[in-house]
Amino acid sequence: MKIVDAKVFVCSPGRNFVTLKLTTESGLTGLGDATLNGRELAVASYLTDHVCPLLIGRDAGQIEDIWQYLYKGAYWRRGPVTMNAIGAVDLALWDIKGKAAGMPVYQLLGGKARDGVLVYGHANGGDIPSTLRAVEGFLERGYLAVRAQTLVPGLEKMYGITKEQLRYEPAEGELPLETVWETRPYLEFVPKLLHTVREQLGFDFHLLHDVHHRLTPIEAAELGKRVEDCSLFWLEDPTPAELQESFRIIRRHTTTPIAVGEVFNTIWDCQQLITEQLIDYIRMDAAHSGGITHLRKIAALAELYNVRTGCHGATDLSPVCLAAALHFDISVPNFGIQEYMHHTEETDAVFPHAYHFEAGYLHPGEEPGLGVKLDESLLERFPYKRTYLPVARLRDGSVTNW
Ligand code: CS2
Ligand code: MG
């Protein structure tokens, strides 16, 4: 199965995506998601200018060997650009291997370990009543798990609050939007939101919240403690995780489950968090973390330490990445939950796919490979437009975590 062509497509159907397409001499094709929100062209160039020339002539069936070749052969290791590029190649190779075998990728990963993939939706609002209504909306649509985010009085713009409910796209503008952040109003207001959701809507659905890296460890411990009686499924990204041992501070004070990892890109970013059981869910996804090949190794380590998976699944991960996640999710033993943010109609038109939602679960479908196509005839309608994720500053003007 010699690779004869490797192409990178940058398009913007509703938002920017970078997609790798590999073609073998027998005409089999595979797709990989190389989208790094706000830095898309860096990965596109890493692939086009440095990786694609290395793939021509290689055997597409040698997935692990190609992974090792691209990882060790680059000399410069780890990092979001390198690992997203390797991840895109890896997804495309699994896609090809599934098509060659005539099987959906999950069959190559050991078959189904569950009937469906539990997902959570994103409810948000400009205040508590509207956020409550948004949570109810997801429950009415059959979701069994919902993330709740609300605008904090006194803060104009902040992470997680959207104009329209189903989709959330934080990247916008020719230059980064600057937002003002203050911790104390957030720390006082979010417990009110989460307690009100439980008081009004009860406990028979999973409730999640994303702190989005904005607290210090001791502030995160305070928040975790204050919402313990909300029985959250998880509190996500409570504090930046470069210093993995800082999660010991959170663990010491609260039983609220912790999820981390969407900004990680190798197993070494989470090794201590997992082996010291400082977290309950690992959020890494199949595009940013070196593909299915590396994500399986992370899940295997996590399984030893009672840590479950909770793959990132925001709109800036394309349907190719979401499909790969579902094949991984349905087969991995220590699955936790899958994030599911709806893409736009334009995105779904460019990436027709086999996965589908039913009664709170996603199913990868039975098509050979990942079950996603790229409609190249539509691409010129959606040219790339440079966008950035917002940057947050404290009221005194110092940069903080968005
Ligand atoms: C968020 C993401 O989905 C999440 O949990 O943290 O929306 C994140 O902000 C984006 O993926 C950044 O591009
Ligand atoms: Mg998050």
Features:
402 residues; alpha/beta; Enolase-like, domain 1; TIM Barrel; 2 domains; 10-stranded mixed beta sheet; 3-stranded antiparallel beta sheet; 12 helices; 17% strand; binds D-mannonic acid; binds magnesium ion
Q: What report would you give on this structure?
A:
With 402 residues, the protein is an alpha/beta fold. It folds into 2 domains: 3-104, Enolase-like, domain 1 (2-Layer Sandwich), CATH 3.30.390; 108-366, Alpha-Beta Barrel (TIM Barrel), CATH 3.20.20. The protein has 12 helices and 16 strands. It has helices at 40-55, 63-73, 80-101, 105-108, 128-140, 183-201, 217-226, 247-253, 271-275, 291-304, 319-329, 345-350; strands at residues 3-11, 17-24, 29-33, 117-125, 145-150, 178-181, 206-210, 234-236, 258-260, 281-282, 308-309, 338-339, 356-358, 361-363, 391-394, 399-400. Strands 4, 5, 7, 8, 9, 10, 11, 12, 13 and 14 form a 10-stranded mixed β-sheet that branches. α1 crosses α3 (80-101). The mean pLDDT is 97. Bound molecules: D-mannonic acid and magnesium ion (MG). Magnesium ion binds next to loops.
